[in-house]
C-alpha cells in the first residue's frame, strides 16, 4: 500500500475512533508504533489538525472533514463492479439501493472518467437468478437482521424434501450459488443450505433454544478451520 493511501486510511480511523492510542492504531494498520509516530508527523506537515495527549491518545480538531474522495481507475472499476454485483444478485430492495448508489457515483465523476455501460470489461450477469430465489434471499436477509428463526422446506442433495427449523446467520456467495449459513435445530449443528434448493420459507413457530455459543463469528471460525 502506498504511503499516501496509508495516511488517508489513518485519517479515516482517527475520524471514527478518536481518541485512539498509537498502539491501537499500529494494530489496526499492522505497523509498528514508531511508524505511527512518523505518520503523525507527516499528517501535521500536510496540514491535518491532529493532536496527541499523553495517556489519552490522538484526535482530530473538531469539525475537520476530509476533502472530496478521489478514486484511481482500478478503485473505481472495483467499486462499480461490486455495486453491479449487488444489483444483479441480491434482492429487489438492495438492487434498487445499489442502482441509486451507482447513479450518485456517476453524477460526480468527470465525463472523461464516467464509464459507459458498453465499455465496461468486468461484467456481472443480470439474468439467471430466478425471482423466487430473489424473494427467498430477501426473506432470509430480513430474518438475519431481525435475529428471527425460520422454518423451511428444503430439497437436499439426494433429492429428498426435508423440513428444517434454523437460526440464519449469514448469506454467502460460493461458486456461482448463494448459500445460507446457520444453526440447524434438527441436526444441532451449523449447516449450509443452497438458496436455490429452498422450496418454501416461513417464520418458525418458536420454542427452539439457541445455544449460547452460536454466532456468525463462531460459524465463520469453524468454517475457516475446516478449510485447512
Features:
SH3 type barrels, two-stranded antiparallel sheet, alpha+beta, 7 helices, single chain, 228 residues, 5-stranded antiparallel beta sheet, 7 strands, extended, Arc Repressor Mutant, subunit A, 42% helix
Description:
The chain has 228 residues and is α+β, with helices and mostly antiparallel strands. The chain has 3 domains: 3-60, Winged helix-like DNA-binding domain superfamily/Winged helix DNA-binding domain (Arc Repressor Mutant, subunit A, Orthogonal Bundle), CATH 1.10.10.10; 73-119, no CATH class; 131-226, Roll (SH3 type barrels). Helix content is 42%, strand content 21%. The chain is built from 7 helices and 7 strands; from the N terminus they run H-H-H-E-E-H-H-H-E-E-E-E-E-H. The strands form 2 sheets. The protein has a 5-stranded antiparallel sheet. A hairpin with a 5-residue loop joins strand 3 (150-155) and strand 4 (161-174). Helix 2 (22-29) crosses helix 3 (33-45) and helix 4 packs antiparallel against helix 5 (92-107). The radius of gyration is 23 Å and the shape is extended. The chain starts with a helix and ends with a helix. 14% of the residues are buried.
Amino acid at each position: 500500500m502506498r504511503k499516501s493511501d496509508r495516511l488517508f486510511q489513518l485519517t479515516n480511523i482517527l475520524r471514527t475512533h478518536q481518541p485512539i492510542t498509537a498502539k491501537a492504531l499500529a494494530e489496526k494498520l499492522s505497523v509498528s508504533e514508531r511508524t505511527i509516530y512518523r505518520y503523525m508527523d507527516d499528517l501535521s506537515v500536510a496540514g491535518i489538525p491532529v493532536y496527541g495527549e499523553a495517556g489519552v491518545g490522538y484526535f482530530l480538531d473538531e469539525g475537520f472533514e476530509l476533502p472530496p474522495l478521489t478514486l484511481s481507475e482500478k478503485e473505481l472499476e472495483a467499486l462499480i463492479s461490486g455495486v453491479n454485483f449487488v444489483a444483479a444478485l441480491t434482492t429487489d430492495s438492495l438492487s434498487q439501493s445499489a442502482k441509486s448508489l451507482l447513479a450518485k457515483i456517476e453524477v460526480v465523476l468527470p465525463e472523461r472518467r464516467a464509464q459507459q455501460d458498453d465499455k465496461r470489461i468486468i461484467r456481472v450477469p443480470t439474468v439467471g437468478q430466478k425471482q423466487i430465489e430473489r424473494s427467498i434471499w430477501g426473506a432470509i436477509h430480513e430474518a438475519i437482521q431481525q435475529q428471527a428463526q425460520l422454518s423451511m422446506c428444503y430439497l437436499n442433495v439426494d433429492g429428498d424434501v426435508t423440513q428444517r427449523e434454523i437460526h440464519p446467520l449469514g448469506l454467502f456467495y460460493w461458486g456461482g450459488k448463494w448459500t445460507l449459513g446457520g444453526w440447524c435445530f434438527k441436526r444441532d449443528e451449523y449447516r449450509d443450505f443452497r438458496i436455490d434448493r429452498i422450496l418454501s420459507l416461513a417464520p418458525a413457530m418458536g420454542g427452539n433454544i439457541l445455544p449460547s455459543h452460536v454466532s456468525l463469528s463462531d460459524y465463520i471460525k469453524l468454517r475457516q478451520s475446516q478449510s485447512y
